[in-house]
Amino acid sequence: MLVIGGGLAGERCAIEAAEGGRKVLIVSLVPPRRSHSCAAQGGMQAALGQSAKGYGDSPDIHFADTVRGADWGCDQDVVRRFVDLAPRAVRELAAWGVPWARVVPGLRVLPTGETVEERPEYAGLVAARDFGGTAKWRACHAADGTGHSLLYATDGRVQRLGIEVLDRTEALALIHDGRACRGAVLRCLRTGAVSAVLARATVIATGGYGRLYGASTNAMINDGLGTSLALATGVVQLGNMEAVQFHPTTLVPSSILITEACRGDGGYLLDRDLHRFMPDHVPGRAELAPRDVVARVMTRLLRAGRGAESPDGPHLWLDIRHLGSRHIASRLPEVADICRAFAGLDPAEELIPVRPAQHYSMGGVRTDADGRVPGLHGLWAAGEAACWDLHGFNRLGGNSLAETLVMGRIVGHSIAAGLEAPGSAPDVSLAAGAVRDQEERIRRLASGADGSEYVHELRRSMQEIMLEHAGIFRTGDGLRQALDALEVLRGRAGRLGLRGGGRGAGPEAAAALALPGQLRLATTIVAGALAREESRGSHFREDFPRRDDARWLVRTLATWPAGARAPRLSYEPVRITELPPGERGTGEGPAGGTRG
Amino acid sequence: MADHLPAPNRALTIRVFRHDPADPASVPRIQAYPLAEESGMTLFTALHRIRDEQDPSLAFDFSCRSAMCGSCGMLVNGRPRLACRTMTRDLPAVIQLMPMPVFRLVRDLSVDTGVWFQAMNGRIEGWLCEAHPFDPAAPEDRMDQATVDAVYQADRCIECGLCVAGCATVAMRPDFLGPAGLNRIARFILDPRDVRGAADFSVLSSSEGVFGCLGLLGCHDYCPKDLPLRERFAYLRRSLAWNLLGLSGRGKGR
Question: What is the ipTM of this complex?
Answer without folding.
Answer: 0.95
